[in-house]
Design a protein that fits this description.
The complex is a heterodimer of chains A (217) and B (99).
Chain A (H helix, E strand, L loop, with lengths): L9 H25 L4 H16 L3 E2 L5 E2 L4 H28 L7 H26 L2 H30 L5 H33 L1 H10 L5
Antiparallel strand pairs in A: 1-2
Helix pairs in contact in A: 1-3, 1-4, 2-3, 3-4, 3-5, 3-7, 4-5, 5-6, 6-7
Chain B lengths: L4 H14 L10 H8 L25 H29 L9
Helix pairs in contact in B: 1-3
The chains are: A mainly alpha (217), B mainly alpha (99).
């Protein structure tokens, strides 16, 4: 759901740039406090993987495709602050080098996918994990939080389109929401599969974040 | 923790980039909504193009152009994020770094 230039108004662009700049500044501060040196290469690998995975569009219904956003995956493995920085780096390279997502719309794209997508996934995952312990709980919480993060990001996008006068709210919200409820299933499946793969090969990576945060969770 | 594991991770990202020609060419969720509801024409051309549409310019074979674009992107994103993370971790007072 990379918004190209032309879809959002100048006012919406300014507000979303300001919002994402604030969120990035806060994420830098928190990452500075919490990031373990061992996580530095993992951040690079995570960003590279998400970039590559975002290139793989999968078919959903009716001649429509979707691709992984990766916000939930990054948030679950590295926390919301590092997750925001990872997704911001991916979106910035996509806009600057690949002309995927507009430069004026970059603030909105960061706000939707790197902030709302990542933070909502993290909050939902952490809440669900309290009720759902164990590996099965991890997969279920991973799936649901990934699904919800895509839907919430798409609703934010719909809201921006409506505020910009591009599409009425009553049209944009159900249209964006419905198609992303389908795409979100793919997001959930891929996120869960990657978590299961990491659990099978490098289980210590799943505990890395909670260890650093002081052992909670 | 082994110091080489992240090289394996990076290779996995490159493997995914090599699979990118298999991606569905269908419009994504937002493009579909924009087409169905008549605002796709509002999309503006980019100000400049480097590697537009994930096709490395000057390569006739589309699959090869996609793979090269993917590999370039994976490397650029990795280097940028690694550098950024390293810089952010470095600004921390040394006393706060433990095991």
């Amino acid at each position: 759901m990379h918004i190209p230039d032309g879809f959002i108004s100048v006012g919406t662009a300014v507000v979303t740039y300001a919002g994402s700049a604030g969120a990035i500044a806060y994420s830098v501060r928190r990452t500075n406090k919490e990031l373990h040196e061992r996580q530095v290469p993992l951040m690079g690998v995570m960003a590279a993987f998400i970039f590559a995975a975002q290139m793989i569009n999968f078919k959903v219904a009716g001649g429509t495709s979707g691709h992984l956003l990766g916000g939930a995956l990054a948030a679950i493995l590295l926390g919301p602050w590092a997750g925001t920085l990872i997704l911001t780096a991916v979106l910035a390279v996509q806009a600057l080098v690949f002309q995927d997502g507009g430069l004026i719309a970059l603030g909105a794209n960061i706000l939707n996918m790197a902030v709302i997508g990542v933070w909502s996934a993290y909050a939902i995952y952490e809440l669900l994990r309290r009720a759902l312990p164990g590996d099965k709980g991890r997969w279920l919480a991973g799936f649901i939080s990934a699904w919800a993060s895509v839907v919430l990001a798409s609703l934010a996008c719909a809201l921006e389109l409506a505020i910009s006068g591009t599409s009425p709210l009553a049209v944009a919200v159900p249209a964006m929401g419905l198609v992303h409820m389908l795409i979100g299933v793919g997001e959930g499946l891929i996120t869960t599969a990657v978590l299961a793969f990491i659990a099978a090969t490098r289980k210590d990576l799943l505990a890395l974040r909670t260890q650093n945060a002081g052992g909670e969770g | 923790m082994s110091s080489r594991w992240w090289i394996v991770g990076l290779c996995l990202a490159l493997v995914v980039a090599f699979l990118s020609p298999l991606a569905s060419p269908d419009p994504d969720g937002l493009e579909r909504v924009a087409e169905d509801h008549g605002f796709i024409s509002r999309a503006q051309e980019p100000w400049y193009t480097l590697i537009p549409d994930y096709l490395f310019p000057g390569i006739r074979n589309e699959a090869v152009a996609t793979i090269i674009a993917g590999v370039v992107g994976v490397i650029v994103v990795f280097v940028l994020t690694y550098g950024l993370a390293k810089a952010i971790a470095k600004r921390r007072p040394t006393g706060e770094r433990q095991t």
